[in-house]
């Protein structure tokens, strides 16, 4: 296995050491704990806190969105594994400014169980109010009639952005949670994978895809997708993703959306742009306009080749929150 | 071969169509020519123009640096191939505001030959003054006694940034060229490769590296490096790169540098940070401080796995120019 790492068991700690070495003026560890990252950016006094958590191996998700107008804190576990409830509770305590904390994360069993316990703990022990909002944007992970089983993938970045802006505007915990839920009702994602990733401590590819095949709808940890097909062109991939997403969330002429073409790790930026070009053409044909496209790597799966498409349907509120200033070491609202 | 593309011969045109579909408010084609990208950002009247050119397949290099405080224009060829002299001349004409154009590009035979011809043409036909500055930052590509043979790699991004800032400050063509040369005297890069890239129209990997080997000093088109070694740890890679660079450009206690850890395509951001962490420790031990680190993908080789390290030694002038505001669809000076 070829990875630029030292001992696999130090992978997450050393990643975090790199983040602190590079950006220690912008982010910090909570009490020297290499699993909990907090923002150093200036913010509004009394701002509602926003936190997330999840497994490592997806940078810039999750740690990369700790910043201004984004997240206040993030707890990470080992690669593709949930962090513990006690670390989540420590983070929530550190991110509460007296007005409560939004807990915004992807719908995975371990993360959900641990965050539920953490929220109970800080409620009972510290009297901290929390609201939990789960990201379930992956349309390939369950049919529409079982939406609550869907997993959270790249669309969570839009949810972080929208909730972060609402909190910066001085909204209450309930209002920030409502903004996140409103965003998520209008966000859908689906991806394709061309090759596997390798978890450092496993040392072998998680799965395999034949040299002439592509997996439609695969999850970001290698969860099985909808189907395996013979290799498709970029245009066919764009058409498939747009079709599946718009079947689930219909769009009509006059609608405005933001579009994210997110690389999973090994796919060149040129290829993201080739796919984006076709997505843009398809939406334009439907009379749908695109605001603030996001093209690049926002939520990865180590060195997996492939990409995902996220569409967020906008209204005045979501457009305003999306376009507000935000920055972290890994994300800048370039429209400003 | 697995690439998210359509016909290989349309790879570059469709990449450019994607750029225009996404960022058509910020950049534009010259007269609809899919090989010439110009900036739409506001700039100082009479500003000295800055242009580059080179083969496709390296995004964000080269097209990604057309923006504000960076490049005014960029011409690209096919993947890993130089564009023509006539397109370069068209671009230079479009980027001259009456005060001349800096032609700043990597030291490759085809690009050099074509830019020399283009500069002669615009001098004779249009009376446009140009200065050529070649980037030769790759220490692995030739020994110190043959520095002029060295190739240009990721260090060119720092040169674009410094020259772009000098031009925005109203400097003359000679002053902007001098700033670029001064930056380049203080910039060194070296990389390692773990796997090959695949040129779309070739359809086969350019070279191969055994599953347990790493190539030290490989070029961004797969040019042979200094040596092939058994797979190394991230710390050993960092130590090797810092040693080779500082042998060529000695650093001493009290020096300040900027450091770029640049992913070549398929290497996860976590691994960039693990390498950065060790580079940071080594420089700190030497008494050298780091300003404005750049960690991520700045100059790639399609889906090649590996990374490069660039060190730019700073003085007051270079630090000021580096930290000035700059933005493009692919680069933001996040320190602002």
TrEMBL record, chains A, B:
Keyword Kinase: yes
InterPro entries, alphabetized: DhaK_dom, Dihydroxyacetone_Kinase
Stored Gene3D superfamilies: Dihydroxyacetone kinase, domain 1, Dihydroxyacetone kinase, domain 2
Record-level GO BP terms: glycerol catabolic process
Pfam family membership, one: Dak1
Keyword Transferase recorded: yes
UniProt-recorded name of the protein: Dihydroxyacetone kinase DhaK subunit
């Amino acid at each position: 296995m070829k990875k630029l790492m030292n001992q696999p068991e130090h992978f997450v700690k050393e990643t975090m050491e790199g983040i602190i070495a590079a950006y220690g003026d912008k982010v910090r560890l909570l009490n020297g704990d290499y699993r909990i990252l907090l923002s150093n950016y200036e913010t509004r006094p009394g701002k509602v806190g926003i936190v997330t958590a999840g497994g490592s191996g997806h940078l810039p998700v999750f740690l990369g969105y700790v910043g201004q107008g984004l997240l206040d804190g993030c707890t990470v576990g080992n690669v593709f594994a949930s962090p513990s409830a006690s670390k989540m509770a420590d983070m929530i305590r550190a991110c509460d400014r007296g007005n409560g904390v939004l807990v915004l994360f992807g719908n995975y069993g371990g993360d959900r169980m641990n965050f539920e316990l953490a929220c109970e703990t800080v409620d009972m022990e510290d009297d901290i109010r929390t609201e939990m909002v789960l990201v379930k944007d992956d349309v390939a992970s369950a049919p529409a009639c079982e939406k609550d089983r869907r997993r959270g993938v790249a669309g969570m970045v839009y949810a972080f952005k929208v909730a972060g802006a609402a909190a910066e505007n001085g909204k209450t915990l309930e209002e920030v949670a409502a903004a996140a839920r409103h965003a998520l009702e209008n966000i859908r994602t689906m991806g394709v994978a061309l090759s596997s990733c390798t978890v450092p401590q496993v040392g072998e590819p998680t799965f395999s895809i034949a040299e002439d095949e592509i997996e439609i709808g695969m999850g970001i940890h290698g969860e099985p997708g909808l189907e395996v097909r013979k290799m498709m062109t970029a245009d066919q991939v764009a058409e498939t993703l747009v079709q599946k997403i718009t079947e689930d969330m219909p769009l009509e002429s006059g609608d405005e959306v933001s579009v994210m073409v997110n690389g999973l790790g090994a796919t060149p930026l040129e290829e993201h742009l080739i796919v984006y070009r076709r997505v843009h053409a398809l939406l334009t044909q439907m009379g749908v306009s695109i605001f603030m496209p996001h093209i690049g790597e926002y939520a990865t799966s180590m060195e997996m080749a492939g990409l995902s498409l996220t569409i967020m349907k906008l209204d005045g509120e979501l457009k305003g929150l999306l376009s507000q200033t935000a920055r972290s070491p890994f994300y800048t609202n370039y429209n400003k």
